[in-house]
Amino acid sequence: MVRAGLRQFFADQIDFQVVAEASNGREALDIVRQGEVDVMVLDISMPDQSGVDALAAIKARAPDLPVLILSGFAESHYATTLLRQGASGYLNKDCDPEDIVRAIRTVVRGRKYITAGVAEQLAESLSHGGDRPAHETLSERELQVFLRLAKGETIGHMADSMSLSVKTVSTYRTRVMEKMTLESNSDLTYYALKNGLIQ
To answer: 22, CA 20 to 30 Å: which among 49, 53, 110, 183?
Structure first.
């Protein structure tokens, strides 16, 4: 429904053309491989993989492609983390469609689109380096592992789907636990739920 609504709204913009749509992360990556898009609007919650994973894969394949994240999560949960990991902008799905159009026009020119709320967060994290939420201290890979563990995914399954060895995933898990000063997977799940990082 969201995609249909956006497609209809974009059709009214004379400088926009929707050239492809994807219903999951794998399809989004296929679109990138075809190389016909100038900007990608990416949902953070997708059926087969998280937007964090999809963003990492897309940026590895097409580092210069602007990716605008559209999310049901509040900006405070993910925005600064995803901007650090290569997203060109971050908007909540409840925003005005005009904001999405403005954001696309901004990122396609090679600039970042940052709302006032995100700008405030970034300023806060610069002035209070030590006050950042624990998950914002994680690297891109660590965040991927953290979110998958929090959702109950096993290390073996993660290793397969991320094309990593079990040992490597275990190392990431250890680093995540140390950085976030947590002791078990249930602690990770509780933290993720409490901070609105998973539903």
So the answer is: 110
